[in-house]
Amino acid sequence: MELDANCGHPVGCGLMAQTGYVLTLERIAEILDEDLEIIETIVANDDNLSFGSIVYVEMAAGNDSITALTADGVEELGLMLAGARSSQQEWNLFLADLVADPEIIARVKPKQPR
Fold first, then answer.
1. What sections of 1-114 are H helices per DSSP?
2. How far apart are CA 29 and CA 23, in angstroms?
3. What does DSSP assign to residue 46?
4. What does the alpha-carbon distance between residue 114 and residue 105 come to, in Å, rounded to a whole number?
5. Which residues make Cβ contacts (< 8 Å) with residue 46, sequence separation at least 6?
6. Which of 28, 57, 106, 112 sits most deeply, having the most CB atoms within 10 A of its CB?
7. Cβ–Cβ under 8 Å, residues 58 and 66
8. Is pLDDT of 23 > 60?
9. Contact 46/8 with Cβ under 8 angstroms?
10. CB atoms inside a 10 Å sphere around CB 75
């Protein structure tokens, strides 16, 4: 199968896995039992998750939008956090590398590794 790079679609053409649903960051924080702000901090840098995992949903009323993740994105984030929480040393390194806000670090750092 060949992909036509000149298909005329404004964002390009190609094959992507179909996404059946997305979850908001608030819901993901509940599911993973994590602090919402640490989730937001990780997702704010789209290099932290695979391409296509982060979805921005524009709301019908106004210019507001929300950020959501695909199922693959939720799984990838969960694995990232589980690896980071494997020991207190790994968790401290993870926070130092990804989180700049000292208030967030102070709030989430004491949570025990899982």
1. 25-32, 36-44, 71-84, 88-98, 102-108
2. 10
3. G
4. 17
5. 54
6. 28
7. no
8. yes
9. no
10. 12
- Range 53-56 contact pairs with CB under 8 angstroms and sequence separation of 24 or more: 55/19, 55/22
- Give the Cα separation of 56 and 46 in Å (integer): 11
CA distance 85 to 113: 4
Q: pLDDT digits over 36-76, tens only?
A: 999 999 999 888 888 888 888 887 777 788 889 999 999 99
Note if the pTM is more than 0.90.
Answer: no
Burial of 22 by CB count in 10 Å (0-12 exposed, 13-18 middle, 19+ buried)? Answer: buried
113 is written with which tokens?
């590794």
Structure tokens at 75: 């799984």
User: Taking a C-beta distance cutoff of 8 angstroms, is the pair 49, 71 a contact?
Assistant: no
For 18, other C-beta atoms within 10 Å of its C-beta total 5
Assigned token pair, 79: 């694995």
